[in-house]
Amino acid sequence: MATSKFDPFDKVDLTFKIVNGHPLEASILTPKTLQSRSVAEYPILVYWHGGGFIVGHRMYEGWFAPWLLDLCLTTPCILITPDYRLLPEANASDILTDVESFWTWLHNTLPVLSNSWHARPDLSKLACAGTSAGGYLAVQSAFLYPDLSRIKLLISIAGSLHSDIPHYRIPGPKKILGKRPPPPWKAERILREYVKGIKDGSVVTRRDPVESWEFLTCVLQQAYLPRWLGMKSEKRLDVMGNLERAEDVPPVWILQGDKDSVVPPICSTGFVDKLKQVKPDVPVLLSLQHGDHGFEVMHTVDDEWVREGFEFVKKYWP
Predict the structure, then answer these.
(1) Burial grade of 145 (CB within 10 A; 0-12, 13-18, 19 or more)
(2) Is beta strand 22-31 parallel, antiparallel or unpaired with respect to 153-157?
(3) Active site includes 132?
(4) Is 212 a catalytic residue?
(5) pTM for this one?
């Protein structure tokens, strides 16, 4: 019988927003072991999924690192993973609007909905994590909506935190996770044909990463990501600029593969360097490990660097 990483959890799906008739949902995963305990409130870990803002979805099991789920089970805490709109039907401003809507719903509506639950969320003990594009959304949650999100701890896994780099801005042949995308002329045609077929008001919140991986690699190779995100349209879209303007930054654990071909290491190391420069008192742990994008899903709590990360986390949360 097939098993799932989510088997140790009870799951509830709730809608936090509707856009053009399309529901945006949050999955709430509660450790099953809590059902045998007394009624109580438990810390929250909000997790934003990755996928280059283009593929993936909130419950894509392959991208959940075993140690992250172990953290939820052993703390124990309630894991909440939300939807957000994907490119190219949306842009970064749309996505950040979804992020803001989620935090508003979390603090204003979820307490009412969960009032009768056996294990209820404790909104005073909230950590936020994300992988790749989700790392960007986790950090932006703290920078753009500090009073709304009230995050005590951040975890960024290969987060795209430094976007103004040639890897994203300049088109050219790339090798991504050991494979080359289609040649530039073909990649360009694939992208243009897709955009032509988008209907007004379309909303997409999930794409299968396997089926759509070639599409994503075309986006990265042809440097469409900054254009589709609209990075030049608003200064708030730039994490590094927001870091300089942020009044308070929670402790942050940064994880990054040193051979990452999707999110170059400078995206994390450059952020850490800047953080130490402008906010030297903010606790930060950089776990720079050998591996390509997605390296973290191959690791468990048996790895020394994961245990070191857990020790860091437990100093500041819950």
Answers:
(1) middle
(2) unpaired
(3) yes
(4) no
(5) 0.97
